[in-house]
Every structure is written in structure tokens, then in C-alpha cells.
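Let's study today's protein:

:::
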Amino acid sequence: MEKSLELLSYKFLVGTYTDTEEQGIDLLTFFPEKDSLSLETIAKGISNPSFILTGKNQEFLYTVSENAGENGGQILSFELEDSRTALQILDSAFTAGDHPCHIAISPDEKYILVSNYSGGNLAVFKVTNGNLERVQVLQHQGSSVNKSRQESAHVHSATFDPSGDYVWVADLGSDELYRYKFESGLENPLSFEEKIPMTPGDGPRHLAFSKDRKELFVVQELTAILEVFSYQNGQMKSKQRLPLFSEEFKGALGAAEVRVSPDGQHIYASNRGDSNSISAFRKNESGIYELIQHYSSGGKMPRNFNLTSDGKYLLAAHQESHEIVVFERNAETGELANTGISIQGHKPVYLHPIQ
């Protein structure tokens, strides 16, 4: 009897907001040939593991526990077993700031940066075989024009540039991008260099670099703008401001995530609020980005989305409607099509692809 061929599948670790001890980190598996999704909780009892990241070989997994307390929230490290269906906790540490919401791993994987949203600071951890040691905390100051959201510093993400020499930190509260020099091995690996002001009221949230390393994309949460910057040797200059909503749209805004397709040809960004959409853009021959379309995300509050490694599919996680929705992506045009494939899951807020 011939051995049956294994079905193609894509796997994602799912970060969530939790309400019970039975909830935590989920594993999502997508079988495109069967038009099906499966979802199981592989690490229960972790409070609000809202952001998840693994190293290059996916041996270790890191997540925040997005909470507040005397010593801030927490970061936890796990060993990811070969089966990808179980996690073994290795270490945990307080982040010295409330509501940690983002993790970045240095190119040499010796350091982890944790962005503390309510704490308004950035915590740096040295990591050795999954063990965590906090070595630096960088406190931000400042405010901006949106009095309800920008009353103080709110560090929302930290992103290493392609060279690994610089870290760009998005501060939603002060409407600034901070540039830090990164030098691995130093007692204090990050050193402040400068602040780049954004348009007042923008609220910078997440960043992504183009595949050719010559452009930087910034999602401005509060104005729902995708801003395109030229980038070279740690220097940036604004080129375009692309709205993530149509001219006739009226309602609340809340841009969340930006992703570059694996082939580098298209840019996607999500908008929550009353929009619940994912916008797609392509670059024309003159180097200007053009809107492909604003697509309904298929649910409520698309806090996060990600693409499969081959770029064939885009999966959108919806915090409010508790579901993950699958789109098929046309690699040539960048267009998206809702496949009708979805699965319910408790407050999915982050998707991290694994192999």
C-alpha cells in the first residue's frame, strides 16, 4: 500500500487576551487543501500573552504577559517542542513597566527588547538559552495633542533596522520615533541618538522595512495613516501618507499592523475602529505607492494579521469578534479574496508563523 502524502499545512502561534485559566497561547493550523482550520490551546494559564515571537530556529518562544503591577508586566520564555504542540516554560521576568505589548529580538538573538505601553519605557533583557536577565530600562517622556490617548509616553514597539545597528522605537504618546544605537555585548547595549517627530496626533504604533531595505513603513494608529519613509544608514525622510480608509468613511479609527509581502511587492495594513478593514498597496513604476483596495477584514477589530511564508494567504485575527479569517492573496496583483474559511477563538490578537 502506498504511503499517503502529508497534506500541506501552515502553522501559527496565536497570542490572546485571556479571561480564564483555561486560556493562553493557541496553535492554529491551516489546511488549504481541506479548506479547514484547527485551533488548540498549547499553554494554559498565561495571562494576556498578547505578543509572541520565536528565534530563527524556533527553539525558544517568548511572550509578554500584558498586565500591570508593582514591577510592571512580565516576559516569559518557553522551549518549543519539536511537535509544536506543547510548550515548556523556562523563565519569567518583570518588565519594569506596565502593559508590555511588543517584543523584538536582536539579530544575534542575545537580547530581547520589550515595549511597555503604559509604563512608557523600553526594557532590555539579555537572554541565554531562554534565561532572562534585565540589563537596561529606557524611560520616555512627553505627550501630544490627543488628550485622551497621548497624555504621557506610550512605547508601542521597537524594531531593529535591517543592518542591526539601530533600533527604532515608536512612542504613540509623544508622537515620536526614537532612534537608538545597538551595540551587542555592552553593559548598556542601547544608546539614545535622536527623536524624529511625527505629525501631531498620529500616534505611531508599528514599523516594517521594505525588502530592499530602502524604505520604512510606519502605521500611525490614531490617524489611521500608513506613512512611507525613505531610509538609508539610520536616516529617514517622509515620502507618502496613505490613508487606511476611503474618502467617504466616517467613524472611529484605530490602525494596528503593517506587513510586507514575502516577495516584497505589496504592503498591507489593518484598521480597527469602525472600519474593520485591511488595506493593500502596490508600488508603481515611478516609485509611488498606490491603493489596491480597502478590504473588509471579515470580523471586528483586526488587531493583527500575518501572511503565510509563501505569500499565498493572509490570516486576520479579530479581537472583538473572536475569530480568525483566511484570505487568498494574488501574488501578481496583491489583491485579496476572502476564502470564507474562518475559526472561532477567544480574543486572538497576534499571529506568529512557525514551521
In short: The first strand starts at residue 10 and ends at 16. Residues 283 and 289 are 4 Å apart (CA to CA). The radius of gyration is 19 Å.
